[in-house]
Amino acid sequence: MSEHLLRQFTATVYIIAEEKVLLIYHRKLAKWLPAGGHLEPNELPPEGAKREALEETGLEIELMSHENLWIERDNAKSFERPFMCLLENVPARPEQPAHQHIDLIYVGRPIGGKELQNLDETGGMKWFSLDDVETMESDVEMFEETKEAIRKIFSIFFTSKSFV
Questions:
Q1: What does the pLDDT look like over 98-145, one tens digit per residue?
Q2: How many other C-beta atoms lie within 10 A of the C-beta of residue 118?
Q3: What is the CATH classification number for the domain harbouring 76?
């Protein structure tokens, strides 16, 4: 894809709890994905990740921290850093031309709210174990990069003694 494509900022969050990850079924892509979507004007990426989680799952979340330096000053302030960043190619559809998403991807855990599937935005919602994820057909039921991210998240957050 060309660097001349329109690029849009998005925020995504892998919601994890009890050695499972909560995924939504994306109707347009026909795949299981973490909650996420476009950032609103002037919205910071962590705010967008939390908003999208609430809109798509009904859950209030906190983002998991993995900072190596945190600044809290009058003139500069840290905000939650993404777990990873992806440049994603989005193919053309009848209603929109091909474009790219600059996706800032977080890991979070539920702290409130009530699981509630947003039928306007999703075609399903389900908690998956790592074994469940591994049985999904790559690039058919779930993107391979989604599986790769989940493997890494499980290896970090579910084997670490610091995870609560």
A1: 999 999 999 999 999 999 888 887 899 999 999 999 999 999 999 999
A2: 14
A3: 3.90.79.10
Residues 5-61: tens digit of each pLDDT: 899 999 999 999 999 999 999 988 899 999 999 999 999 999 999 999 999 999 999
Residue with tokens 């060309």: 2
Containing structural domain, residue 45 = 7-157
Give the span between the Cα atoms of 151 and 47, in whole angstroms.
Answer: 25
- Which single residue is written with the structure tokens 């989940």? 150
Rounded-to-integer distance, Cα 102 and Cα 100, Å? 7
Is 67 in contact with 46 (CB distance < 8 Å)?
no
E strands within the chain?
Answer: 7-17, 20-26, 31-33, 35-38, 59-63, 84-90, 99-113, 125-128
Q: Does residue 164 lie in a domain region?
A: no
pTM above 0.85, yes or no: yes
Q: How many domains does the chain have?
A: 1
